[in-house]
Amino acid sequence: MSGSTPKTYGSLLAAATQMLGSKFDAGQLFTHVTQKKLYHMSFLSDKPVPEKQADLLLRMVKRRLGGEPLQYLLGEWEFYGLPFKVGKGVLIPRAETESVVDTALDLLKDIKSPVVLDLCSGTGCVAAAISHNRPDALVTAVELSDAAYDYLLLNIELNHSKVMPVKQDIKEYKHPCLLDILVSNPPYIPKETIAALQTEVKFEPRMALSGGGDGLDFYRIIPKLYFGQLLPGGWFCLEIGVGQSDKVVKILKDSGCVDIFVRDDYSGIPRVVCAKKPV
Q1: For 209-248, how does the pLDDT look when each residue is reduced to its tens digit (9 = 90+)?
Q2: What is the reported pTM?
Q3: Cα–Cα–Cα angle for 236, 237, 238, rounded to 5 degrees
Q4: CA-to-CA distance for 249 and 168, rounded, in angstroms?
Q5: Residue spans of beta strands (DSSP E) within 18-133
Q6: Cα–Cα distance, 218 to 5 (Å, whole number)
Q7: CA torsion 141→95→136→168, rounded to 10°?
Q8: Which of 103, 133, 159, 251 has minimal CB crowding within 10 Å?
């Protein structure tokens, strides 16, 4: 934006919206910086805005225009009705992943004090959401990345969660008792397609995105290493990428799983594959 810094709340919000071309992004950043709710704008529009706030908002707008994710700029994002701290080095919680939580809770509804393991936990959003809705569950979250693990700890504290954090490679972790369910949103983007991702996504850690050559490395690793850690009748509940359902179903079937099914996310896209260890 050229010219002088906007002097009123109304002109500041208008400038941010014009620059971004998005009322939603502009409104989120405006509220974050000014701590003013948009529904108060009828009273605030002509009120003077502190210069420091105006300068900060315009700097954040420029960062957003450079592709930095809105969630990183805000520092926090909602998932399953809970707040989660986010920033550089951790995967941003997404609405489609809520389907994993929905499915896991359905599978656990008749199990008392279920034992739950969340692999590649990142922010801990799946683990914390399950724990919040099933306070009797014994939930463990495993994460290897230093940066992501720090966010996992922050979010466990933020949500007063009973989730047990573990910093370890999932290839080496062994749970101390058998599991009722293993949930995971593993990296599943094929290595060669990462360069073509949206700019916003490429701000997120490659470690949380790349699933190897065909995107399926973790779907091969998880049943191989964790089938024996499930209770008889225990479940795998795994998020998948677009177009991966048939291949993941086959991997789980070949691993000895039964009662395999696929569930769509809120957009109608196959998003979760579940498979049971035979009783």
Answers
A1: 667 778 899 999 999 999 999 999 999 999 999 999 999 9
A2: 0.91
A3: 110
A4: 27
A5: 76-79, 82-85, 115-119
A6: 49
A7: 0
A8: 133
